[in-house]
Each structure stands twice: as C-alpha cells, then as structure tokens.
Q: What sequence folds into this?
C-alpha cells in the first residue's frame, strides 16, 4: 500500500544520472570526467579509497557542490540549472546522512530527528513525537530523545543522523558511511535496517562504505571510484568476479597493488 | 621597483576585497530582509536569541553604563567647577549617555559578547556541515539561523541602551550629588531642561542600527567560515573587529544626520 | 526546579526597558510642563543671538512658557513665545533676552505691565523689548567708559588742582548764588501771571473733553460696522486702510491711556473716563475679530504627499499621491490617486449547464482613487470614504509630536474574499521624509498578503494656505 510510486509504469530506469563531472579544489582534481547512473528503487554502493572523492560525489548529487563541468540529473532535472527554490523542491525528495552526522548542536535528539517533519509537514506535535520514537527504535536508540548531540558517542550520533535521514521516508537516501564506527552487531543491524527500509518503501539508496561485508549485504549495484572516475560498476557477483587489479587490492585490503598508500 | 609594484598591487587587491566583502554583507542583509518578510517567523528561535543577546547582556551593560556615568560626572565636575557651573554635570552625563555612550558602549559590549558568539556558533555549524544539513533538508539557513539573530539584535540593542542610559545617569547622580556635593535639584532640573526626547529616541535609533550591524556582521563572518576550528577562531576575531569598526564609523554618520 | 521560560525572561526585560524609557521620556519631555495648551505671542528683537527654541520664558524668575520659534523678519528676529493660558500679559509688558550667569543659556524675561491694562490676545505682539547688552559689547563699552572717566578726572584734576582753577571754582559758586537770588525775585513779582497760566490750562482741558466725546461716537460707528469688516477685508486696499486706521486709532488711544494719570486728574469728570473706557473696549473687540480671522488662516493647512511602498512578496511597488486639506485642527479631507501594479481584481461567475466557471480579471496599471473624510481626536484620527477605489475605514494613531503614525485600514469588503486589511507604521525620519513598514492585505485569501517597506515625502503648501484661507469654512 505504500508502493504508490510503483503503480505508475516505470518509464525510466535511472533516478540519478551523473554525466562527465569534473571537479577540482584549487590545483587538486577530485572528480575527473565521472559518469554514473543510479538506478531507481535500488541500492547503489560506492566504494573507493579514503580521500578519493566519494563524499564530494555525494554532495554533487544533492546540489551542495556544483560541478566545474558536467551535469547532474535527478528525476530528469538538471539540478545545476535550478535556482534556490527549484533546488529546494528537488531536495525534498532526499534524505542524507553525513559522514560526521552533522547533527544540530543546539537541539536535542528529538529536535534533530523531528526537524524535517516540523519543517515540511503539518503533522501534529504528538504525531511527530510518535514518528521520531519509531525511527529511534529502528536505529536502536529509544530513550535518548532528550540528550544533546554532544552527550552522545560517535556511533550514536551516526545512528541519530540515520534516523533523521529516513524520518520523512524520502524517495532517495544518501548514506555517507552509515556503519563506520559501529560494533559488528550494530553494523549488521544497521545494514538490515537499510535493506528493510529500502525494500519496504521502494527507496533509491546511495551508500558509501568501506566495510566489505556491508557492501555485499546492502548493494544491488556497486561502483568503484578511483582517480576521479568510476572504474568498475556492476552487481555484487560481477564485482566479486572482477579481475580489475585496483578492485582486487581494495577488496582484499592488500598493500601490494596499484593503490599506493604511502 | 618590482617590490613597489607588488605592494601597490597588494594594496589595490585588499581594497577590492574589502569592497567585495561589503557588497556580500549587503547582499546577506537584503536576503535577511527578504526572509524576514516571509512568514512564518521562527518565534522560538527569535526568543532564544533575544534572551542570549538581550537578557544575558544586562549585567555587563548595567556595569559599563553605571561606571561610564560615574566617570563622566567626575570628569565633568573638574571642568565645570572652574566656571562655577557644577550643576551642568547632570545634563552633560545625561546628554553624553543618551546620545553617544549609551548606544555605542552597549553595542561594543554586545559585539564582544554576542556578535562573537554568533560568528563562532555559525562558524562551527559551517565546518561541521550542519549548515549543509540544513540545505539538504530544504531549510534555508538564512531563515533559520540569521533572521532570528538579526531580529534579536535590532530589538534588544535599543532595550539594552535604555538600561545603559538610565544606569549611566543614575551613576552620574550618585557621584555628583552625594559624593561631590552638587545640589540635587539643580542636577536634575538641568537634565530635564537640556535633554530632549529627541536625544533619547535618536540614541535608540542608533542602537537599533548597531544591533543590525553587529548581528549581520557576526552572522556573515560565521556563515562564511572555512578551515575547521582555526577558521572558526579567525572568523570570530574578524567579526568582532569588523563590527566594532563599522559601529564606530556608522556612529559618525548617524550623528551627522540626526543631531 | 522552578525556572522562568525564555519568553518570560525576554518579555520581562523588554517591559522593564519600556518602563524606564517611559519614565525618562516623562521626565525630560515637554509633557510635564503643559505649555502645549498655551497661547502664542510674538516679539521682535533686534538680535536674538544665543536664544534657542524651547528656551524658557519667565516672569520674575518663574517659568511661564517656552520659545516656540525664531525666524527672520525684516532684518530682525521674530520670536514666537508660547505662554501658559493661566498667565495673562498686559499690553505694555516688556520682553528682554537675559542669560543665566555670564555663560549660561539665554531665556526671555518678561517684565509685567501696568495693572488694569488690556491683555494681549493669542497671536498678539509684545511691543516693548529691551535687549540686554552682549557680554562683549558690555566689556568694550566698559573699556570706553573707563577711558572717559580717566580723561575727565584728569582734566578735573587740572582744573581744580591749580591755584587758578580754585579761583574759577569760587567764581562759579558765586554766580550760581546770584542767579538763584534773581529767580526768587522774579517768581514773587509775577505771581499773578502764573495764576493766569494755570487757568488757561483748565480751559484747554474742557476743550479736550469735547474732543473725546467726538472720538467716542466715531468708535461706536466702527463698532456697529464690525460685521462688515470681514467683507472689507477681502478688498486688499480696504483692508490696508482699515489696518492703518486701526493702528493710528490704537496709537491715539494708547497715548490717552498712558496719560490717564495726569489728564484724568485734570479732567476730574467720571463720565468722560467711562466713555473713554467704553471706546477702548470696543476697539479691542474689533481687533479680536481680526485676530480670529487671522488665526483661522493659520489653522488651515494643506499637505501634499507622495508615498512609495515596496511589497516584498510580489516584488512590486505601489505609489500613493495624496492631497490632504485640513480646514482646522481636528478635521481633514484626503484626496489622492494610487498606482497599484497588481491592479484591481474582478471576479465573475458564469454558470453553464450546472458547472460554474469563475473568471478572474485583473486590470493592471490602473489608477485607483482615494477620497476620504477624517476627524481627529487628540492622538487618534478616524477616516472613512474611498480607499483604493473601494469603500473603507481607517484609524491612525499619532505619537511623539506626530512623528510616529500607526495606521490600520480596512477596505474592499467583498463577499467572495476577505477584506483588504492593511497595517503600517510611519516614522518621520527627516523634516519632510518618512519611512514606513507594514503588512498589506494580511488576511488575504488570495495570497496577496505581503509585508512592505515604504518611504514618503510630505509638504505643507504654504502658498496654497493663504489662497484658500479666505474661502469661508463650514463649521
Ligand atoms: N570543501 C573542500 N575544499 C577543498 N578540498 C576539499 C573539499 N572537500 C573535499 N576536498 C578534498 O577532496 C578530496 C576528496 O574528499 P572526500 O571527502 O570526497 O573524500 P572521501 O572519498 O569521502 O574520503 P573518506 O572515505 O575518507 O571520507 C580530499 O582530498 C579533500 O581534501
Ligand atoms: Mg567521505
């Protein structure tokens, strides 16, 4: 019954389309002609080396950064061409978990998770509190509503950020390393949560992850970012089979290979 | 030769940057105006800022106001005694406080207390991606963060200035009458006779302007912070310096227009 | 634990600040003095240097008024005083500019006139003035005097000090004695002639009495002609003549009045004195009539104003051009045009076969009209009439000497939409410049509500004032 979106015939396969994105910060080239299609109603996992530009890529998708050249299409709209108002309309389809959670220091957990609900819905305060508690329960944090972000651990903050990102059940959710800093059990629980939510609400998810276990648990498609481009893209099976030396080294965590660390 | 050229070049660049910054501050101010005009205003946030800017500054403002009035009375007394015009001390303190020192000192104190805090708070929010988070949730940071602070500044500065004016005159009275032995009737009558309603109200208009300046500058500096914790510190310092300078310069022009 | 909410703290603080402001305003404001209700008196000084607006006006050191304005008139300073209504000034009071101490502020000191004199009416003049010497003038004069004194004493010393001088002095005293002796002799010898002279003087006074009777009848005639003076005044020549006549008449009566002490005794006839008094009173009456006419012209005011408003939400401007005619303090008419870029909206419902279609038409760039009548009660003015080409009412509240105006208007009452409500505040920023801010159409159900800021220019038309001043005013 939530699947109203699916009752319409799906005419296109791609929710988000990145075309030939270039982005530099000063001298440093971070994205170098990147192309990526993110499928509608699927979870796409982006992997890549630390400092490789994954977070930058995510920020392009939601319009926080503008590409030096290239286009970003969300729902067939080129978001680079939108003004603030148009961009806001597009952003209402999104939820995003930041790498450092980016919780509002001045609000307690309740205020943080309720923020998008209070901002964009006309729900009653009682109803909002109910929804917040439900989301917090889903991330295993029931009972911390009145704590301030500074009173939480890093992992707890991340989970509150996650609860905030999915509070509205947006169409598209971007997760920047949702499981980093969590213990193995909690990691598994969060992965489960992502999979469940994605399935139940037919979400389009983009997940950045370093955790090899998680990649294969949540991903329908996996993309490997290396030197500013996507060098491999495909189903988990395909990625596991891939003979690309960069990918092989990344997945095995070996120091030998094309990725030089030091 | 090359060195001179480079110096001139740097100098020109610095001026251009300053002008550019002024333009950006003005644009921020205009967007604040535009957002202010678009209800609903975040009343809770406004009250919170009013408490921070206004209520929590009462103590410093009372302190500075009182002592400024006392010092003025003392200084004025030594000057006027030469002409046997000690009773003019009252009106001197009252005029000085209502026209100039009340608004300016209050504004400088609040800049140091609240203007810097605005820059630091917004700066921290910028570097920890909280401002990005607002954008992502389709919530405009100007509306959520800056408008309440500017409104609080514009409303609370005049209120604090009234307190400062009053405490200054009270301090002047305390030093003038019981300590220096000026006739209390003459002291008060001179205030009633020589101070106009206009002096008080123009002082309050000034204060509102200063409140606008310190809040817009504080928010601007914080909002455009880059470079982590160090950047936040830098933004805070710059905000205080720029706001204080702008307050003093604009005070000259406001005085020239008003009195 | 008991804690005060943020709102309560802020509210309490603002309240305290407002109370302090109110207290200070009350202490320094003119409201404590109450001259506002007083009447105006004009004085012309040769020089009003150092005198300022709002300076004190005192009698015997008691404040009885304030200086309301200082302006130039024929190369002299015309100072307008506003005097407490309870204080009556005789026509022969004398005004002086004095200062508190050597360096102190200047004030106007009024020396009371003769008791029993007629009083100066509102808008009248104080004719006797004396300017206290400037401190520098005084000092330089003092210098001259000192030099003179020195010279005199020097020559005196020369005259008296020498042997020759002493002899001269003796001779002078001798001469004086012989002159007085001669005078005494002459008076005793001519006693009879002197008596005759005094008798002649008595006869002259009888003649004078006749003259007064004649004057009295002339004055009576003028008195009965009072109603026609208004008509006469419309004719400029006649008005001037009348003025001249009145001036000379007043001159004469003033002189007689002044002489009352001696002549009165000489005449010793109660009837004549009574007649004279009657005559003076009637002259006073006619003067009052003229005064009234002039103050009517004073009250009549017209204002031209332009106000531009910038509506934030539609990013459009709205312009008002108004003519306000204020025949007297508490009544005004307002005529104007409004340029509203959003235009007027007309809605028509057409029903075809059960389905109703609503067509909305906007007439853009159309001028709208304002025609209102208003009445002012102290700080509040009520208006009614045509607002932006529709019926409506408005209320204005004035504060701080009319420099702040709070306005609320309601108009365009319509069954299919909410009325157009508008509220704004306008503040006089500079002499003719006003800034305003408010909310336009704020209960609109068509999304036309918008905050606005505005700016306006207002002029009082001085020229128009006198032109229209002679038109009869319906009361
Ligand atoms: N606002 C910015 N200004 C300048 N450089 C930036 C900015 N944001 C990112 N970078 C640079 O871009 C590069 C990519 O950063 P990004 O945060 O995307 O890395 P990442 O792939 O998310 O790494 P990690 O896995 O550690 O989070 C980094 O070298 C970083 O220094
Ligand atoms: Mg990252």
A:
């Amino acid at each position: 019954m939530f699947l109203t979106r699916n009752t319409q015939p799906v005419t296109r396969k791609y929710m988000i389309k990145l075309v030939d994105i270039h982005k530099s910060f000063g001298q440093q080239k971070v994205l170098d002609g990147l192309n990526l299609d993110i499928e509608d109603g699927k979870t796409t996992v982006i992997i890549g080396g630390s400092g490789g530009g994954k977070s930058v890529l995510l920020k392009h998708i939601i319009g926080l950064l503008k590409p030096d050249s290239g286009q970003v299409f969300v729902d067939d709209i080129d978001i680079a061409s939108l003004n603030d108002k148009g961009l806001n309309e597009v952003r209402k389809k999104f939820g995003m978990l930041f790498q450092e959670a980016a919780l509002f220091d001045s609000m307690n957990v309740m205020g943080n998770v309720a923020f998008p609900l209070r901002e964009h819905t006309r729900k009653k305060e009682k109803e909002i509190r109910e929804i917040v508690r439900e989301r917090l329960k889903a991330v295993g944090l029931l009972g911390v509503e009145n704590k301030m972000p500074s009173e939480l651990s890093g992992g707890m903050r991340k989970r509150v950020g996650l609860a905030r990102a999915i509070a509205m059940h947006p169409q598209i959710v971007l997760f920047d390393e949702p499981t980093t800093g969590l213990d193995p059990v909690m990691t598994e629980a969060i992965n489960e949560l992502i999979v469940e939510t994605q399935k139940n609400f037919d979400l389009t998810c983009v997940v950045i992850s370093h955790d090899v276990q998680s990649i294969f648990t949540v991903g329908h498609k996996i993309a490997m970012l290396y030197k500013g481009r996507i060098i491999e893209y495909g189903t988990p099976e395909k990625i596991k089979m891939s003979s690309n030396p960069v990918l092989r080294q990344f997945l095995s965590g070996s120091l030998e290979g094309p990725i030089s660390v030091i | 030769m090359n060195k001179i050229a480079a110096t001139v070049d740097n100098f020109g660049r610095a001026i251009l940057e300053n002008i550019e910054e002024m333009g950006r501050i003005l644009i921020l101010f205009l967007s604040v105006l535009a957002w202010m005009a678009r209800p609903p205003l975040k009343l809770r946030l406004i009250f919170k800022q009013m408490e921070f800017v206004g209520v929590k500054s009462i103590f410093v403002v009372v302190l500075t106001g009182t002592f400024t009035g006392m010092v003025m009375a003392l200084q004025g007394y030594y000057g006027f005694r030469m002409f046997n015009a000690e009773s003019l001390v009252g009106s001197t303190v009252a005029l000085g406080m209502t026209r100039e020192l009340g608004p300016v000192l209050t504004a400088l104190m609040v800049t140091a207390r609240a203007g810097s805090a605005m820059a630091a708070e917004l700066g921290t929010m910028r570097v920890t991606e909280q401002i990005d988070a607002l954008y992502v949730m389709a919530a405009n940071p100007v509306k959520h963060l800056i408008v309440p602070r500017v409104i609080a500044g514009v409303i609370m500065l005049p209120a604090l200035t009234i307190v400062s004016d009053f405490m200054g005159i009270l301090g002047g009275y305390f030093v003038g009458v019981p300590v220096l032995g000026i006739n209390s009737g003459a002291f008060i009558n001179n205030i009633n006779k020589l101070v106009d309603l206009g002096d008080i109200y123009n002082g309050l208009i000034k204060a509102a302007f200063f409140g606008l300046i310190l809040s817009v500058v504080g928010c601007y500096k914080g909002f455009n912070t880059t470079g982590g914790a160090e950047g936040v510190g830098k933004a805070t310092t710059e905000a205080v310096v720029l706001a204080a300078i702008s307050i003093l310069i604009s005070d000259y022009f406001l005085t020239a227009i008003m009195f | 634990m008991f804690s005060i909410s943020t709102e309560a703290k802020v509210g309490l603080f603002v309240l305290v600040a407002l109370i302090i402001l109110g207290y200070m305003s009350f202490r320094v404001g003119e409201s404590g003095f109450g001259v506002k209700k007083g009447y105006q008196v004009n004085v012309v000084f040769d020089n009003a240097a150092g005198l300022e607006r709002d300076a004190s006006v005192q009698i015997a050191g008691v404040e009885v008024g304030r200086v309301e304005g200082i302006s130039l008139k024929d190369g002299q300073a015309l100072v307008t005083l506003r005097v407490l209504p309870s204080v009556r000034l005789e026509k022969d009071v004398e005004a002086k500019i004095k200062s508190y101490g050597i360096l102190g502020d200047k004030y106007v000191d009024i020396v009371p006139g003769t008791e029993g004199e007629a009083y100066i009416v509102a808008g009248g003049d104080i004719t006797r003035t004396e300017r206290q010497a400037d401190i520098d003038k005084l000092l330089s004069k003092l210098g001259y005097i000192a030099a003179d004194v020195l010279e005199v004493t020097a020559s005196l010393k020369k005259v008296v000090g020498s042997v020759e001088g002493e002899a001269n002095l003796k001779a002078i005293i001798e001469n004086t004695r012989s002159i007085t002796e001669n005078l005494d002799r002459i008076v005793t010898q001519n006693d009879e002639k002197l008596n005759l002279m005094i008798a002649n003087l008595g006869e002259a006074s009888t003649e004078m009495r006749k003259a007064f009777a004649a004057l009295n009848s002339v004055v009576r005639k003028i008195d009965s002609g009072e109603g026609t003076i208004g008509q006469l005044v419309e004719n400029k020549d006649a008005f001037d003549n009348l003025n001249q006549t009145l001036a000379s008449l007043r001159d004469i009566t003033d002189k007689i009045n002044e002489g009352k002490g001696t002549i009165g005794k000489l005449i010793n006839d109660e009837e004549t004195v009574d007649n004279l008094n009657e005559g003076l009173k009637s002259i006073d009456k006619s003067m009052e009539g003229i005064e009234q006419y002039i103050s009517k012209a004073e009250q009549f005011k017209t204002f031209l104003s332009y106000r531009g408003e910038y509506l934030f939400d539609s990013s459009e401007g709205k312009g008002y051009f108004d003519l306000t005619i204020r025949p007297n303090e508490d009544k005004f008419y307002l005529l104007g045009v409004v340029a509203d870029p959003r235009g007027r909206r007309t809605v028509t419902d057409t029903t075809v076969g059960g389905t109703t279609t609503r067509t909305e038409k906007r007439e853009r760039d159309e001028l709208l009209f304002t025609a209102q009548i208003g009445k002012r009660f102290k700080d509040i003015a009520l208006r009614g009439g045509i607002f932006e080409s529709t019926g409506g009412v408005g209320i204005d509240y004035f504060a701080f000497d009319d420099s702040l105006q709070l306005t609320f208007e309601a108009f365009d009452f319509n069954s299919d939409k909410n009325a157009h409500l508008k509220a704004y505040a306008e503040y006089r920023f500079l002499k003719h410049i006003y800034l305003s801010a408010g909310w336009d159409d704020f209960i609109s159900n068509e999304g036309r509500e918008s905050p606005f800021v505005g700016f306006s220019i207002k002029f009082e038309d001085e020229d128009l004032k006198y032109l229209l001043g002679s038109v009869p005013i319906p009361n």
Summary: The radius of gyration of chain B is 21 Å. Residues A 25, 30, 48, 50-56, 99 surround adenosine-5'-triphosphate (ligand 1) (CB under 6 Å). The mean pLDDT of chain B is 90. Chain B has one domain: 41-258.
